[in-house]
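Priority: low. Protein: Flavohemoprotein. Input follows.
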Amino acid sequence: MLNEKTIEIIKSTVPVLKEHGTTITTRFYELLFSKNPDLLNIFNHVNQKQGRQQTALANAVYAAAVHIDQLEAILPAVKQIAHKHRSLGVKAEHYPSVGENLLQAIKDVLGDAATDEIISAWADAYGVIANVFISVENEMYEHAETQSGGWEGFRNFIVDRKVQESDVITSFYLKPEDKKTISSYEAGQYISVKLKAPGEQYEMIRQYSLSDSPNEQYYRISVKREDAIGDKAEGMASTYLHNQVNVGDVLQISAPAGDFVLNTAKTNPVVLISGGVGLTPMVSMLHTLAEQQPEREVVFIHAAVNSKVHALREEVAVLAEKPTIQSFVCYESPTEQDRLDQNFDKDGYIDKEWLKSIISTIEADVYFCGPIPFMKAINESLLDIGFKEENIHFEFFGPKSDLSSSKNDLVTNR
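Result:
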């Protein structure tokens, strides 16, 4: 436990962290990777280049300082980050180096303002915070390894099927190379895939939502190809999967993780909203609802540019034949054929008025996922309509951003 003096000092640094947080975390990553280049095999280089990871960590440090006297308040967010860490392979032995470089970054950025007293207080605070993470992550590692079909670290899976779902999205059906049982998962969870592209110095670990019904025979991920432009590496992993990985190839995968999951203990109506490839966890949830809670009312809403990039449409249509499931499609720029076929319900963007017209109750639980601008618009519309924050659930592909919701005090990296 931290003494009152230490807590007082940490809280006094909150304004400084708010102003200089991103500068501190940018310096932190520079130090961390220069001293520990092997960690470049774990961290997402694209998120680093875009500055998203630095911002996410800055927000996390800021939230920890704000809640330093009541760390239990941020435990849900700690667990969320811990899921990512367990999936990536972050271990207890990584934390001392992280702490050392974080303190050095604070010194480098704040200069004389970072007094010995402040650095000492943050060293104590970091020790407490790190122990919380390590404890939670150790429990998750144990669960991942000891559950039925579970395993430690990364396990070899064979690409059993490769299916093109749209012009930009391809599904990969993955079965264990050892032919043994695999752990099931909750709808909405993801797996980490470790890749090593030819000519690249470091491995890439990417997290992909599982897009099918939870089962113990195979995993399915549906990956959008993000074409790299010039020397930009945004699509390195996805283009490698699309262009180089074929049926019979072996991929290394960690056990399913994540806390963005469908609550099947409830029986109230459910609304699932997705934009683009954000439909992957939503389709898994839709399958689960259809199979496990067929009496539960569901509204499935998907937004895409047009039918050419709309994946898994037929699969959703089959599920929507059930009387309790309604499916709606919004196309931003329908093709001429789309207009002739009349295969969508709304032209343009999802907006508040349209949502009000197709969602029958604000007592529903809403789950949504998609590009950040899309998610901000959906979140704002739902709150304006009258949905309670506790009934709104969302997932980011990549480091978390602010949706102007109090639930986003602490952020992480996906």
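The CA atoms of residues 12 and 280 lie 43 Å apart. The chain has a mean pLDDT of 91.
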